[in-house]
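As described in the Methods, two query proteins were run sequentially through the folding procedure within a single session, without resetting any intermediate state between them. The first query and its resulting structure tokens are shown here.
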Amino acid sequence: MADSEKMAVIIEGGVSPTSSSLEPPIDRAAERRLVRKLDMRILPVLWVLYLANFIDRANIGNAKIQGMEKELNLIGQRFNICVWIFNLGILTAGVPLTIAFKKYGPKSLCVMMVAWGITVIGCGLVKRWEELVVTRLLEGMAESAFISGAAYLIGAYYTTKEYLSRFVFFCTAGIIAGAINGFISSLIAKMDGVGGYSAWRWIFIIEGILTIVISIVSWPLVVPFPEDCNFLSKEEKELMLTRVKDGGHNPNETITLRGALHHLKDWKIWAGVAMNLGVTENANSLANFQPTILKGLGYTATQAQIHTIPVYLVGATFSVIFAYLSEYLNRRYAFYILGWAVLVVGLAVEIAYPPAPGVRYMGMFFIACGCYLAMPISIVWVSMNAGKGYKRAIAIGAIINFGTAGAFVSSNVFMFKETPRFHTGFSTGLGLACMGATAATITFLGCWWENKKRDERRSEYPAVVEGTVEELGDEHPDFRFAL
């Protein structure tokens, strides 16, 4: 390969001036048609899969207030144990299964889905609370690489300027799932006693069966990695590969344990873990404890389920609007901080515990809006700065799966004896949110400083640098970190 072909320049936003100068300009009309086709082919199926995923991971909160707590004798912190053990499964299996996803391809998402659907059905068949702990652990392991795998797949097909808005759209499935979960649970509750099973058991059984059916139907619809895509014409595929050649997917890379450990030494990945953990803890608290909190405001179990719906819908709308604005302005840090600030307002309301239930209910809206904006930004921002291929996959897996460690905290600080105020839970959430904002600030300043130093040192290198960005990733001297 000629030296001029080895040279690649990456700046914030993913544009490569050097490479673009060697190629004919892209037909913008054809590009718009291609992006629309990608949007219709890739995003809907992933959205539906994530809808099922989030319903399955959050339904324990709905089952709790439909009789599970009494029937399984979930006294003391037993329910909390059943919540956090799920995240132990994610923590232990997340990164290895994300690497397996990168190796075996996107259809492995459907295999994971069948596995966790079986465990969800198992949650509805347990006889003792200890058995629920085991099934929840296995469910967490089976689900551990789904979000990180989907995030990697989306990033493989879109440019960096398009990545955040598409990933946020994908994430709205989780938010909508939180909304319809309450509605679905209120309907399934009417099956109480059918077949000798309580309402809470039917919640798990029916939703687990639906998950398995959806995974089987989705198998032919999940797209392969870009180099193997078969749903585009030859011209469209060439255009697509041209657009994403400086993106985050590297089809020719292999990985070793030593290489994986080397990638994990990057401080930006662990700053991303802290960013994600700071808001994920609060999001998990909302998903797992909101029905209980609302019931404590004086609602019946069914009313509490229904009142979760507007909270999630407003959170979804807020996150989409400001994610698109973040992408348009090419700014991540400022919008992460915006999400953090909105989250802090909601937490402050809950900590103050005003006497009016409507005001405390309003605080839930602020918590949802803040979490659901900051979470996807933390994932996409760090993954954009992690170069390509396995490093990006490992970075996404680490951020999402180690970030779920926040659930260990939330499941143990929302103590039954503090119902419905949960002062310790919300206060801890505020502290972790501030930790996330601190990590985001460190990431912004560190990346800005590194970009500045690389600009200053660029004159020390030859005009043509040996090695490409595909080979060197974010270690290439022309790579610039997104801010």
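Immediately afterward, the second query was submitted; its sequence and tokens are:
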Amino acid sequence: MAEKSKYLYDGMRLPFILLVTCFAAWGIAANMTDPLVKVFSKIFSMSTLQASFVQFSYYGAYFCLALPAAFINRRFSYKTGVLVGLGCAICGAFLFYPASQAMTFGFFLMALFMLAGGLSILETSANPFVISMGPEHNATRRLNFAQAFNPVGTNIGVFLAATLILPRLNPATEAERAAMAPDALRAIQVEELSAVMTPYVGFACVLVVIWIAIALIPMPTKREMTAEGHEVHFGATLSRLLKNRHYRFGVIAQFFNVAAQTCVWTFTIQYVQDAIGGTEADAGWYLQASLIIFLVSRFVMVWLMGYLRPAMLLTLMALCGTALCLFAMSSPNIAGVWAVVSISATLSLMFPTIYGIALHGLGDDTKFGAAGLVMAILGGALMPLVHGAVMDAQGAAFSYIVPGLCFLVVAAYGVFDLRSKNRMTAQPAT
């Protein structure tokens, strides 16, 4: 009984702390990238749909690299996966320097793809790693606690974008840029792209420090230490996962959860400017406020999960998300702006909760199951294109119908879990 009451297995505290820094790290990258849709659309005079390929490249890499990460974890260990992921992310972040010199949108997309590909491997490894560090009965709550430090990173990412990138955008409009002499326009673009490059190169240096720390610390888990062999039976594993209705629905729910989150945060700046005006830098502070709300709400949700079933909270928050999107659509003013900002409170628990619920009881299939849930991040690549197209056609306010519908799918998964007779109820705090 004493073993079951533990939150972490013996000797896992320091490895857990180091992994928490990884959760913060990919939060920095993701939310430093969100404003780039607006940034590149201005620098390169592109439509919102064209600039949305920033998110297509970023989250598309998550889809492409999650399965290779599962093979790495299965064949070697979670620690190996973490180190490989960090290494690829470091290379991608450093590529922002030559991209700023080349001054081409395609080069930046390539750098983003490598950065995000490394983070995909990192996330595919770190999430189940945290789950394996303690008893299964409180795994979802433990993962929510680790994920609570992800919004610390997201706030840092938005802050870096709001202070180092957005204020350095030239105020010239698209029409004014089109009328400029080529040399004058190029001088402006050089300065703006230098502003984009600086925080990413700094981020790469921080990741190098994290990589060294993790490499030097032994990080086995009890489940990995007692595992029998490392043989990979992908076909049989995939067959079992596809037959698991709860897991299948979890992947779908994760797709639409990430889609909603990416759409909301990516287009917050455009919504704010359309609703109340102001510069990109001014609107960026509303995105910062939404991430602060996300951070505080994540810890509140971890506390609530000591008393309520995770699926119950998931359902309620998803329905609140839909309601806030509908309000933002109908009231494109300061009230609508704060509704968009408040959506982050509903998003706070979704990713780790869906992740933990969907992986519950998978046993040896967890590593490939985790890859499927990270591949579901593809929603963040595809749905912003839909959101951007709707925004170009119908305006920023109406486009929030896209995340509103996504939240309904997440709510349906919460109801599905609540109705499943074999699901565990939430455990009290230990």
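The chain has one domain: 13-218+234-419. We note this only descriptively and draw no conclusion about the first query from it.
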